[in-house]
Design a protein that fits this description.
- With 198 residues, the protein is α+β, with helices and mostly antiparallel strands.
- The protein has a single domain, classed as Gcn5-related N-acetyltransferase (GNAT) (Aminopeptidase), CATH 3.40.630.30.
- The chain is built from 10 helices and 7 strands.
- Strands 1-2-3-4-5-7-6 form a 7-stranded mixed β-sheet, sandwiched between helices.
- Strand 2 and strand 3 form a beta hairpin.
- The longest helix has 15 residues.
- The chain is globular.
- The termini are far apart.
- This is GNAT family N-acetyltransferase.
- InterPro entries: Acyl_CoA_acyltransferase, GNAT_dom.
- One of its GO terms (molecular function) is acyltransferase activity, transferring groups other than amino-acyl groups.
- Keywords: Transferase.
């Protein structure tokens, strides 16, 4: 018998991530089970040289040394979402990205910046407030662990109306605006650099 789907009207709760629930959410199929939130942590040839199982072990290891590398959302006891958030230096691909380079040297040189790297929301729970709850939790988690600034790189759907799931894993400008973020760069059309200060 198939599992009974969760009621999308159930309240959403959030907390710093734990490994067993991340592993359950990411599962064994789909992009999360191949990436394991390591795309921004493994630039260029490093990404190509690692298998999904290695990426999984790398993310698991992050839970052993310092603050959790993200937050989770739940409906009842069921995990329904993840948001990766870590100090920006943990993400070499972001630091070298065209989007951040275009924002200018001051933005790149800032210290105390944590980056919101990605969202994973379980099928059946998208467009129901999970991403907003995750972003709020990510901001709180970053500030609680010493961040001065939380930064995101969302898609502007007004300029990229055909953006699909593969493009929206970093969130949308509307999502970040609603969470109190301010745009600091629009120099790459359709992709903004947005920040929220402590």
């Amino acid at each position: 018998m198939p599992p009974i789907p969760l009621d999308p009207a159930l309240p959403i709760t959030t907390c710093p991530a734990n490994w067993p629930d991340v592993e359950k959410l990411f599962g064994v199929r789909g992009e999360p089970s191949r990436c394991w939130c390591r795309w921004f942590a493994l630039p260029g040839q490093d990404w190509k040289a690692t298998a999904p199982g290695t990426r999984k072990e790398q993310l698991k290891a992050k839970f052993d040394d310092g603050p959790e590398p993200g937050v989770l959302a739940f409906r009842g006891d069921e995990v329904v979402g993840w948001c990766g958030v870590e100090p920006r230096q943990c993400y070499p691909r972001i630091e070298r990205s065209q989007v951040l380079r275009a924002a200018g040297p001051a933005a790149r040189a800032d210290t105390g910046v944590w980056s919101v790297s990605c969202f994973v929301v379980a099928p059946g729970h998208r467009r129901s407030g999970v991403a907003a709850a995750l972003l709020s939790a990510a901001v709180g988690h970053a500030f609680a662990n010493g961040a001065d600034v939380v930064e995101g790189y969302p898609v502007d759907r007004a300029l990229r109306p055909k953006a699909g799931t593969a493009d929206l894993y970093q969130g949308t400008v509307g999502l970040f605006t609603a969470a109190g973020f301010t745009t600091i760069s629009k120099k790459v059309p359709g992709r903004e650099v947005m920040r929220r200060w402590r």
